[in-house]
């Protein structure tokens, strides 16, 4: 145990606050670009040291962790590229006009500036990509916000070592000391979100923990935004035509997706809706039984999984198809039910079961399918498997799902989140606490930026990018017209 | 009295929810453009009917109200123009790439969609521009969100009549019934923010009322964003050089700004910082004494003003320069103090006094000036009056102020908020509850939009703007490159 003391948490926050001005200055963007790339390079160079630590602490396999580290450094560099491109700052210039229709118009120059120090809470299931140097940290740093990371207790040594590498790389590129630091322990995490100098929080984890932090952030004398990704069921809906055209392929895809990473992805498909008489159960059961047992992240996750599995199995009308196993390294489990049972037992069946379990739900007709779709709360993803002829006919289902999910997939599987410009990783509550944002992709930076406008300000007091003379060549909107260099 | 019953509130929300799909559809943007313009035209056409109602209820003068109505319809048309321009939707397309560095990349198509029905709380001091058809309503409707307006009790008849005109104009342009409705009463307002179908709130008013609604929005089973503009002191800092160069001009500008609209603007300059020995007091006092008495908005505002004026005057070390008067139509008041007294009495002196009062604060040196600037919480605006030679020397002050305010002015006065692209009307708490957004200007729409991403979705199930074939010519980002048609 090495929980941070209250004084250590305060010291980390004070250091972040002290670093905020220099690190977040609009003229410091070139430094931040260099810093993000330096962090990426340093992490890549440390792969042979970090991956074994991650393997020992998370029980995830080497290949997965190396891939995750590659993704992590890719996204750091993607944010660096976005900073260089410049549109993220939303530079906007309005010329003065004494004869304007609403009266004399001043010279106004607007851009986005960092909100200030950010508390990032590492996730258990992505020791690299959603932890110390993960997407929340990368986007906050890119925005110009110092970060205090609350390490996840599932990988403390990795968090510490990653933190050292991140801190050193930042400083090597000219960032102030205190731009990044790591704190540990449950109490430290609670304290962190209440520290007055912390101006936003970012979190990936369970609904109870995320909601408690969200509530604490909202209850502060100065409430702050809290970007929590809490839980998702990621339902998959299969049409009759799709079953007929490629039922076996869907069955094997489903098994692969829900058991991937021992079912410990936030995008794991937790429910598969199939039409009555689909005839795929044998395929699905056989495939599920063939998946090997594999270790879960830690004991807490394993015991949580066992508990939820028991809750679901105990519902009258739920038939256990594959019992699987529980313990540190479970074999996948599978159950089946129908829409009326699902709708009558939403508390038990429409709650996330984090681990290698999914529920097959048969629907009698389109009305049942829509009723089920409309029963869901917010989700990260929702998926439809259909044929070309279905696409235009499914408008009701598509609308029901896009009202409830951040990403809609067609004929795919939700596990695997591409770090690209058009990705949306988010969704209505409880998928996230802030559906107007994403936590993956370049626009995740927007969570940590606030607009300011300068009125009739002389060049000498302006950030370089807003000056009248010698402004860099970036994307800007001038007198309402978007200009791309 | 005509408070809405709980059933009437629920009916209004249900109607809004029923309208949300058709009104918010991405393919319905042309209809929304027409609808916003129809609302603007209808309000302009009704000016001679509406302005007298507003005069009777708000006691504001005709010229001001006609100008405010012009601003209101201007911003409705500005949002229509922004919808037509298209960049607001953030259309983003990533091509599939089986050989991508992080593994096979899917076809991803992203845009912003409306969050759903919005509760808008009208303000007392802008019966047009921040009320029924004001900026919050205009931006929510532009986003595709139906609106349920909670009318301000200071102008109920105007809210009702404006609401009728807005509703009729929306329907005439093809918007569904229920896209806009009005509810009244304190209890109705409280109920509205807890209605499950309401997905965001927008508010302009006092800190206690705004905080209560913010807390209620955050405490919902599904928390929702609440965009409240609550209070602002709008400090003005004058350098020694500026006093020497144009002290008399500053004195008269100050009086004009703080007494404008009987001091009932959210951007009223509440404190004026002058260097010791400035020699301007006589000018300021004389000018303040010459301002005529004028009616306040309503009794509640008048009695609140009298109370705050008493609190400030009672502070030891505060010298009342101009006692002014209280009552329905007060004459402006003015007091003076120094920075040490200000810092020792922050609860009384760093709180908004809504009405025709301001506080002149003398500072002994730059350290006192900075200490005062750093004592402020969040503000909508902060202003510096300086000469050219000051601009580069005031970096510390500029940073202190831009950390605490949404808009920084140079040699101007904060009253008057230009509705333009580069305007920022917002700021850290308690200026607003969401400093990452603005409530004035086209980007105010961003408060009511959430991103969704479609993965490998066929054209038939996509909004037109995201299709592969026959897409409209709008601003988009394709494979990371921003394209302006």
What can you tell me about this protein's structure?
The structure is a homodimer of 485-residue chains. In chain A, strands 10-11-12-9-8-13-14 form a seven-stranded mixed β-sheet, sandwiched between helices. Chain A has a five-stranded mixed β-sheet with strand order 15-2-1-16-17, with no helix packed on it. In chain A, strands 5-4-3-6-7 form a five-stranded parallel β-sheet, with helices on both faces. Chain A has helices at 6-24, 29-45, 47-58, 62-85, 135-143, 156-172, 186-194, 207-219, 240-259, 281-290, 299-313, 339-344, 346-349, 366-375, 388-391, 395-402; strands spanning 92-94, 108-114, 118-121, 147-150, 180-183, 200-204, 226-229, 236-238, 271-275, 319-322, 333-338, 357-363, 379-385, 405-410, 449-455, 476-478, 481-483. With 485 residues, chain A is an alpha/beta fold. In chain A, 41% of the residues lie in helices and 17% in strands. The longest helix of chain A has 24 residues, at 62-85. The model of chain A has no long low-confidence stretch (mean pLDDT 97). Chain A folds into two domains: 6-230 and 435-483, Aldehyde Dehydrogenase, Chain A, domain 1 (3-Layer(aba) Sandwich), CATH 3.40.605.10; 236-410, Aldehyde Dehydrogenase, Chain A, domain 2 (3-Layer(aba) Sandwich), CATH 3.40.309. Chains A and B meet through helix 4, strand 1, strand 2, helix 8 and helix 16 of A and helix 4, strand 1, strand 2, helix 8 and helix 16 of B. Strand 15 of chain A pairs parallel with strand 14 of chain B, so a sheet runs across the interface.
């Amino acid at each position: 145990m090495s929980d941070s003391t209250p004084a250590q948490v305060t010291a980390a926050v004070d250091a972040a606050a002290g670093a905020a001005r220099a690190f977040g200055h609009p003229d410091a963007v070139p430094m931040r670009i260099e810093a993000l790339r330096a962090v990426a390079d340093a992490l890549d160079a440390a792969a042979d040291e970090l991956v074994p630590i991650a393997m020992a602490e998370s029980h995830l396999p080497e290949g997965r962790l190396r891939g995750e580290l590659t993704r992590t450094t890719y996204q750091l560099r993607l944010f660096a590229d976005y900073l260089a491109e410049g549109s993220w700052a939303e530079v906007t210039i309005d010329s003065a006009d004494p004869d304007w229709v609403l009266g004399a118009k001043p010279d106004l120059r607007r851009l986005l500036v960092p909100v200030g120090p950010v508390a990032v809470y590492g996730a258990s299931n992505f020791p690299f990509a959603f932890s110390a140097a993960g997407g929340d940290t990368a986007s906050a740093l890119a925005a110009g916000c110092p970060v205090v990371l609350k390490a996840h207790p599932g990988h403390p040594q990795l968090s510490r070592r990653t933190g050292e590498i991140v801190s050193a790389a930042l400083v090597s590129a000219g960032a102030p000391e205190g731009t990044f630091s790591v704190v540990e322990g449950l109490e430290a995490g609670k304290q962190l979100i209440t520290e007055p100098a912390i101006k936003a929080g970012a979190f990936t984890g369970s609904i109870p923990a995320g909601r408690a932090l969200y509530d604490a952030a909202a209850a502060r004398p100065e409430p702050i935004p809290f970007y929590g990704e809490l839980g998702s069921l990621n339902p998959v809906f299969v049409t009759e035509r799709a079953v007929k055209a490629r039922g076996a392929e869907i069955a094997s895809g489903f098994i692969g997706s829900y058991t991937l990473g021992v079912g410990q992805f936030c995008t794991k498909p937790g429910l598969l809706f199939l039409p009555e008489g689909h005839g795929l159960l044998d395929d699905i059961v056989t495939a599920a039984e063939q998946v090997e047992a594999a270790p879960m992240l830690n004991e807490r996750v394993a015991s949580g999984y066992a508990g939820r599995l028991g809750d679901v199995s105990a519902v009258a009308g739920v038939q256990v198809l594959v019992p699987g196993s529980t313990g540190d390294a479970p074999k996948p489990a599978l159950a089946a039910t129908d829409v009326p049972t699902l709708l009558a037992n939403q508390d038990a069946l429409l709650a996330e079961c984090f681990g290698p379990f999914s529920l097959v739900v048969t629907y009698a007709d389109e009305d049942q399918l829509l009723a089920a779709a409309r029963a869901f709360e917010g989700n990260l993803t929702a998926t439809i498997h259909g044929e070309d002829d279905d696409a235009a006919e499914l408008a009701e289902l598509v609308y029901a799902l896009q009202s409830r999910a951040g990403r809609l997939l067609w004929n795919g599987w939700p596990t695997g989140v591409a770090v690209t410009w058009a990705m949306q990783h988010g969704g209505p509550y409880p998928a996230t606490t802030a559906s107007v944002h994403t936590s993956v992709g370049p626009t995740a930076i927007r969570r940590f930026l606030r607009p300011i406008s300068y009125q009739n300000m002389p060049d000498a007091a302006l950030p370089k990018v807003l000056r009248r003379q010698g402004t860099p060549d970036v994307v800007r909107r001038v007198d309402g017209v978007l200009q791309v260099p």
